[in-house]
Amino acid sequence: MKLIDGKIGWMLLLALGIAFPFIAAGNDYYLTVMATAYIFAIATIGLNLITGYTGQFNLAHSGFMAVGAYTVGILTVDHNVPFWIAFALSGFVAAGLGFFVGLVSLRLKGHFFSIFTMCVGYIMYLLIEKWEGLTHGTVGIMGIPAPSPIAGFEFESPRAQYYLVLFFLVLAVFFMHRIANSLLGRTFMAIRNGDDLAEALGINLMRNKVLAFMLSVFYAGLAGGLYAGFVRFLGPGIAGVEHTFDMTMYMLVGGIGTLLGPLLGAIGVPWLTQYLQFLQDYRFIVFGPLLIILVIFVPHGIVGSYLGWKARNASRLASQNAARQTPAAGVVGRSQQKGSSHA
User: Fold this and answer.
1) What are the transmembrane regions (predicted)?
2) Could you report the per-residue pLDDT of 193-246, keeping only the tens digit for each?
3) Integer Cα distance of 41 and 24 in angstroms
4) How do the domains of the chain map onto residue ranges?
5) Architecture of the CATH domain 31-275
6) With pLDDT > 90 as the criterion, what percentage of the chain qualifies?
7) What DSSP string describes 273-324?
């Protein structure tokens, strides 16, 4: 029943995603905001793999997203590589770089790892900004082509691009669900719960940490490739650490270490900031305290708190059922004793 309810919930979310362009009544701005939220949701799901499931907080995640985006931008604009080939390479280039960064950084633990990756992310930002011969520097890369047509389907209009991004978001969620519920996902969670415990279970820590890191930045690279084809312009700002902090906020609001939480956070928070735009420069004064209150009173995020409440409720019901059955078992036992004494 639990599995059926989960499938129904995911199908409802998919139906809402498909119906959104009709709900938005053809408003291209709404489609752009939602599609951008989907792209960052893909990257956030990847960050949740290394942070929420494996317990390693990577502050260079936006840098790897920039690597994927610039892979598409450089290959398509400077070398006339077809978009889909460049897009396919975006995730693998980010994962390849992640392999070497992971080998060095994952020897560190806790906040030392986070500080090291923050430095790596800043180095990525500086390379993008200063290496003009490759990245075009502060001028950025302009004129990135839209995704080329597939089987007659063109992706020039905002609606077509929206559905394209939605398609890749569905794929990202599907494969992350498979990873999280596999033996590999349980291995990552064992590492999160404690290195000593994981080693006692026979888990190769470095190999699995590096694998989790590579899968995480693979998601970031693909999200960056989609971002390049959607926005059609790139600047060094995409590598800024503030984007990693935004994705961290999405995880905290939705529920870190869950599959649905980062998705809801990445979609809901941007829309909340959009609705607070009427406050202009003061909207963050309102949004900041709201976030602090949420973190204080709902520390496990919306989805994490709901799952915790559901588990506590199930435990309470099980205790009540056990308490009802115990007196009944006692009455049956006493009646059997009386019957045997009469005999």
Assistant:
1) 7-24, 30-50, 57-77, 83-104, 111-128, 162-180, 210-230, 250-272, 284-309
2) 888 888 888 889 999 999 999 999 999 999 999 999 999 999 999 999 889 988
3) 20
4) 31-275
5) Orthogonal Bundle (1.10)
6) 52
7) HHHTGGGGGGHHHHHHHHHHHHHHH-TTHHHHHHHHHHHHHHHHHHHHHHHH
